[in-house]
Amino acid sequence: MIFRKRLTIISFVIILSGLVIFPANAQEELQDRSTIFENSIYRQLMTASKKNLTEKLNQSVTDNGITVTLNEIYYFDNELSYSMTVESKKKFTNEESTENNLIAEPFRYLGRPHIKYNGKTINFASSLWYEKVSDKKVAMILKVHPNTKISNNEVFEMTFNQVMNTKGYWNFKMPVKEADNNVIKIDNAAKKEGDVKLELHHIKWNDAEVSVNFTEERSLTNADMVAFNLITDNGDALELFTGYQSSISQINQEDNTVTTEYFFKFALPEDGVSQLTFSPHIDAEFYQTLTKSSEKLDPKELPITLSQGEIGSLLITDIEYKDDKTIVTYEDHLKYPISQVYPGNNIWLENNSHKNVSSVYIVRNLLGKVKPVGLHNTYIAEFPVTGIESSPLKVASWLYPYPEVFEKLQYTIPLDGF
């Protein structure tokens, strides 16, 4: 099975306005608060909750008629994920909730918190996924990437001063306990190619994901976008869960360099994999003009292979034309993904005149219409356009060249401890 990297977020506050659909009885199911993680777009959180790697918090604070509840927390290698609900006595208004304003919409639901670690205010990157459960209730997942290293069993304090466009004071304190894990520490592992220097510190894993902790040092004048894959010994790339948003950076003005520590998270390798290769590369999309591939989206011709060039392909396994949308189920068969390519931002639908008829509906997963199916490499994508079987649409993507790999910076990691 080939795993895929799904999402890379730069180290600023990014919002994922998730429209992933909960089951019809979502309100009842959400009373079992673990289902927020398990019904999200994050495979690692689905697994972590099912494997009891999370801590139940169940802390609620009410102010000005709005109740914020922290339900569950998952902490692993300097990354915290909270499942939350926000509930109001009055119905939430929807004036700002439009297709053109969905990026700003979650800010309305939940303001950026103030976070203290052991009593000191810290900076952080964050992302927010949400699902509107009813006119009075929203389920959310807040992911926090502190700009400082977090020790186990220390105290976190999180304060929200605005929720649902309503000012107030919602304050939470909780100890942070890391999920049970194993770790392989790596010493004296610095490598250099050109003006880029890498140093691997450890590889850590639990039953939900793998974390690679490393430091990158480069010249401030180096504008290359370096990305990272974790490759199995059979040549498959593991799905990327967390990337650049995990950064802790420090600028050295004396030698004109920037040093950044990362905690990249990947899917677990399958049983039988004996080693992994940590593989840095330059993302080709930044530097090359791409050509397009397309295939007729005909249900009678399934399965349909959609090439994505030298890095691999997608396999479309099911097509469903509804009155108001088209649903496409596909498998990701990319052997060497690049960080700008993940389900959601690189496929679109065209008519017979090769015109994009799905517009910007799916852009970098921000609209949340791509949902993982199961724990591996299958996805369902929804498009707000439809065709008929006698005149089907086309599905299109870009053809990507194989990226430039920094071979001198690669690390081979034996998995004796896995």
UniProtKB/TrEMBL annotation:
<dbReference type="InterPro" id="IPR025436">
    <property type="entry name" value="DUF4179"/>
</dbReference>
<keyword id="KW-0732">Signal</keyword>
<dbReference type="Pfam" id="PF13786">
    <property type="entry name" value="DUF4179"/>
</dbReference>
<protein>
    <submittedName>
        <fullName>DUF4179 domain-containing protein</fullName>
    </submittedName>
</protein>
<feature type="domain" description="DUF4179">
    <location>
        <begin position="4"/>
        <end position="88"/>
    </location>
</feature>
<feature type="signal peptide">
    <location>
        <begin position="1"/>
        <end position="26"/>
    </location>
</feature>
